Structure formats: structure tokens, C-alpha cells
Amino acid sequence: MSEAPSNSVVALRQAPLVHAARNAGVPFDAGWFDTLRVNHSAVERRTATLGTRRSVKKDAQAAWLLKAVTCIDLTTLNGDDTEGRVRRLCAKARRPVREDILEALGMAGAPIATGAVCVYHRFVAAAVDALAGSGIPVAAVSTGFPAGLTPHPLKLKEIEASVADGAAEIDIVVTREHILTGNWRALYDEVRDFRAACGPAHVKAILATGDIRTLSNVARASMICMMAGADFIKTSTGKEGVNATLDVSLVMVRAIREYRERTGAMVGFKPAGGVSTAKAALAYQILMKEELGRPWLEPALFRIGASSLLADIERQLEHHVSGRYSAFHRHPAA
């Protein structure tokens, strides 16, 4: 797990590849997922070891946390969002870690920025304007987020409107009913339509794993969304009762591994909802490194959907350089 801090610093100083090659998808084939079964106990045993078999400390941990910052989709998805709040969030995305902390870490002037800014369609144009010249993409939640129960034609129009306003990524919500009733062809066709509507924008398919009940459903839905052309698969909207967990994430990343073995395509992964501490971010990074390999530690293939995570990472980095914990409110996300 551990890498020399100097190697991590070199990687951070390089301009990150924001997007991987598109996933073209494959024709629908029930044989790819009909027999998928997940051993829940085995999953729990595997995830329970993630924080115990590996340890990242001191300078190496600081480097890994800086890497995590570059993989954050800095998010605001609240009913009281305003254009001013979104623009402040974009300013934080450009400079996510205080300059005095970066200087103390020997990273002054490093091109560290978040992986994306994620907003409702209403604020896409403002976010695109605020991030102009930064290389940071804007992601728009779409398709009737978070419930996904608006009419299908309206979902396609919403996607098209966000792409027209400059969104480079679309986080789409699948219809949970298709999964709960085993209507896999309907799920495939829906995601295929969403991908077509996205045009050049990358598709991040949200499974809402807290709503679809079983790990076997998670495995099947993951495979079908990738077959339909999703560039990322994402755990949750952040609005469900249960959002990202290591158990569902393990199932999803192993589906990504199987899809790559079958097609050669590299699909990204995004846990979202409830990933709010630096310790949790490290656990997800360990999961990606051990299950999928080094390429999945970059923002091209790994994102964390979060609003409060950045503040805790910045707080941990300040503790690393000063030996003291600061108050949480000294590290606002926006």
C-alpha cells in the first residue's frame, strides 16, 4: 500500500487526466449478469480488513490525502443553494487547501484542485463561468434527481439542457423500479438513452444502492449500467437513508474489474453520501488500489462525492504540519 512520499508528490505535481476514454458499452446480454450472486458474509469479511491490514502514516498519509482532494466532486445539492454559494464553492475547488498548509508540506504552487464541482442544473452555467480556465469540470445531477421519477422525455431534455450550459459530466439517476422488479432490459435501455442524450459529456450512473436492497441487485445493476455505456458507476444520490458503504463499493468495483476483463474498458467509480472524514477517504483509496490498481487512484477513474469531506482533510493536513487540531469552522467548504 505505502508508496514513497516523493513519488506521490511527483504524481500530484503533474496535471491530472480529468477524463478517461469513453466506455462505448456493449449489446444487452443477460448472460453477463443472470447468474451473479454475492456472498454477503464474504464481502463483510473483506471490507473489515481494509483498515487493519494496511496503514498509511505521517508524510505518506499527507500525500494520500492530497491525492484524495484531487478526486473530490465538491458538491452542493441543497434546496437553499444560491448562485453566490455555488461561486464560492467553485473558488474553493480551485484552491481547496490553504496556501500556508501546502507550503509547510513542500507543495507550494502545486496544481491541486478538486476533481469536479457538482451542482443542480440551475447552477451549471454559473459554475462553468466561475471555473473558466481552471480545467475543473462541472458535473450536473440530472434525470429527476434524487428520486428519478419524472417522465423519461423530460429526463432526456434535462440532460441536454445541462450539456448545453457546459456540463462535462452528468450524474444520472436510474429508475429503481427496474432493478427491484428485475426489468433489466428496461434499465439497459434507459441508461443507453441517457448516454445518447449526454453527447460528449461523461455519464455517471447513480444506482441508489440504499434503495435497491441486496448486494446481488447492486452487482447486476452495476454490470448493466456499464453494458449500456456508463463511464462511471456511483453508489448513491446522498439523499437515501443509507448511502455509500464499503460493502456495496466492493461489489461495484469488482463488477468494474469483471467488465474490464470482458471488454478492456476502464470504468470509473464514485462513492457518494456519508464519506465525510479523512479516515473514510483513505479506506476508499485503499479499496481502489487493492481491487483495481493504481490507475483508479486518479480523478479520471475515481471520485468521491462530498460536501464536508474537504474540510476534514484540510484539518488533518494542518494537524500533520503543526501538531495541533484546529476548529472545524476554520476550514469551510465554501
State the main characteristics.
334 residues, disordered N terminus, 44% helix, eight-stranded parallel β-sheet, single chain, TIM Barrel, alpha/beta
What does this structure look like?
The structure is a single chain. The protein has 334 residues and is of the alpha/beta class. It has a single domain (5-330), classed as Aldolase class I (TIM Barrel), CATH 3.20.20.70. Helix content is 44%, strand content 10%. Strands 7-6-5-4-3-2-1-8 form an eight-stranded parallel beta sheet. Strand 6, helix 11 and strand 7 form a beta-alpha-beta unit. Helix 2 packs across helix 11. The two termini are 32 Å apart.
In short:
Keywords: Lyase, Schiff base. GO terms for molecular function: deoxyribose-phosphate aldolase activity. With 334 residues, the protein is α/β, with parallel strands linked by helices.
Secondary structure blueprint with pairings:
Layout: H1 5-13, H2 40-48, H3 58-69, E1 72-75, H4 83-94, H5 99-104, E2 116-119, H6 124-130, E3 138-142, H7 152-164, E4 169-173, H8 176-180, H9 184-198, E5 202-206, H10 215-227, E6 232-234, H11 246-263, E7 268-270, H12 278-291, E8 304-306, H13 309-322
Parallel strand pairs: 1-2, 1-8, 2-3, 3-4, 4-5, 5-6, 6-7
Helix pairs in contact: 1-3, 2-11, 3-12, 3-13, 7-9, 9-10, 10-11, 11-12
Beta strand %: 5-15%
What average pLDDT do the residues reach?
93
Strand order of the largest sheet: 7-6-5-4-3-2-1-8
**What's the end-to-end separation, in Å?**
32 Å
